[in-house]
Write a structure and sequence with these properties.
The chain has about 350 residues and is α/β, with parallel strands linked by helices. The protein has helices spanning about 10-25, 45-50, 75-80, 105-115, 140-150, 160-170, 175-185, 195-200, 205-220, 220-235, 240-260, 265-275, 280-290, 295-310, 315-340; strands at about 1-5, 35-40, 60-65, 90-95, 130-135, 155, 190-195. The chain has 3 domains: about 1-135, P-loop containing nucleotide triphosphate hydrolases (Rossmann fold), CATH 3.40.50; about 140-200, Helicase, Ruva Protein, domain 3 (Orthogonal Bundle), CATH 1.10.8; about 205-340, Up-down Bundle (Zinc Finger, Delta Prime, domain 3), CATH 1.20.272.10.
């Protein structure tokens, strides 16, 4: 049996690979029946020889070849010729970040994967090939993934908890899975995780400093804004994109708090409307009162532009974020000038 596993979503790929390895090597001596190679350093000859070796005191042996996209043309040709010789007792797994479908070796595996037996009872002459691509999930798919992942871990997350988890952590599955494990330990023995649990576990130095940064921005204190920005990025060692997502979430909540000023909601109802713990409601209300709606919207527009720059530019992240503060300062001056003209 031959597997080709490739794609940019390494978390899902590695999880599939771990499950495959567990099933293939169950009941046997793992160290004697598993060989690991890299396409950067291994030769086709060494991989073929390992694949032709019979398992020791087990039904199957597993040959794992990572970085398979780095095989040269000569090694690819040798491997292609050997695929029909691999015994049924060997599971040969090629792992790659991406494949070039123009190369004959990958075309060969894809063709073999699409070959069907002549009948249900017929046995193919060569080992079957299974190909799986692991693509990164779209952002809209992440909440469903968190829901299913939490079920797999025998817990449930409130919808609001899932939302804030995505906003605070992002869409990286490794980070999300690690955070879910921390949440489970924090909430134990409860099997239901709430938004309060998420805020208690994740609201670290970076999250608390975002309140201070938003306060400084709202007051037009750009020196303090730069101070808190550096504190978040440098002292807490948080990635710039995550910090920006925290700031964006904060101002989305401020915009909702601004809209709620005329509605006179009870605190619990307002907390549900804002999507935050009641503990934070007063802080958001006081900050929203110090800003105009136009100021909040313009701030969010600059934050969105900064998000694009972080994802596309080769300029250092800290410099991009500092430019964001300068842009906010310039825009605040423009808004003040416009207000003076209309007064």
């Amino acid at each position: 049996m031959i597997y080709l596993l490739y794609g940019a979503e390494s978390f899902l790929l590695d999880r599939f690979l771990a499950s495959l390895e567990s099933n293939v090597l169950k009941g046997g001596i793992r160290d004697f029946n598993r060989d690991l190679f890299s396409g950067k350093t291994a030769t086709a000859k060494s991989i073929i020889e390992a694949s032709l070796t019979l398992p020791m005191m087990a039904e199957k042996r597993m040959i794992l070849v990572r970085e398979a996209e780095f095989f040269n043309k000569n090694d690819q040709e040798k491997l292609m010729a050997a695929t029909d010789q691999i015994p049924e007792t060997t599971v040969l797994v090629f792992v790659a970040h991406k494949i070039d479908r123009r190369q004959l070796f990958w075309q060969h595996l894809i063709k073999k994967a699409n070959v069907k037996p002549k009948s249900e009872t017929s046995v193919p002459e060569a080992p079957a090939v299974l190909i799986r691509e692991f693509k990164p999930l779209y952002p809209r798919e992440i909440p469903s993934w968190i829901h299913e992942e939490s079920r797999r871990m025998s817990v449930t997350l409130d919808p609001e908890a899932i939302q804030i988890l995505v906003e605070l952590i992002g869409t990286h599955l490794v980070d999300l899975s690690y955070t879910l494990e921390k949440l489970i330990l924090y909430a134990s023995p409860r099997q239901s995780i709430t938004i309060e649990d998420v805020e208690a576990v994740i609201c670290d130095v970076a999250v608390r400093s975002v309140f201070d940064l938003a306060d400084a921005i709202g007051q037009g204190n750009w020196g303090r804004s730069l101070y808190f920005l550096e504190k978040i990025l440098v002292s807490s060692e948080e990635p710039a994109l995550r910090v920006l997502s925290l700031i964006l979430r904060h101002f989305r909540i401020l915009l909702k708090a601004k809209e709620a000023e005329t509605k006179r909601m009870p605190q619990m109802e307002l907390a549900r409307f804002l999507g935050v713990s009641p503990y934070f409601v007063n802080n958001y209300q006081s900050q929203a009162q110090r800003m105009t709606r136009a100021h909040i919207l313009q701030t969010m527009e600059i934050l969105y532009q900064t998000d694009k720059s972080l994802k596309r530019s080769f300029i250092p992240d800290l410099l991009i974020m500092e430019r964001m503060i300068f842009s906010l300062a310039a825009e605040r001056g423009n808004l003040a000038a416009q207000a003076a003209n209309f007064s």
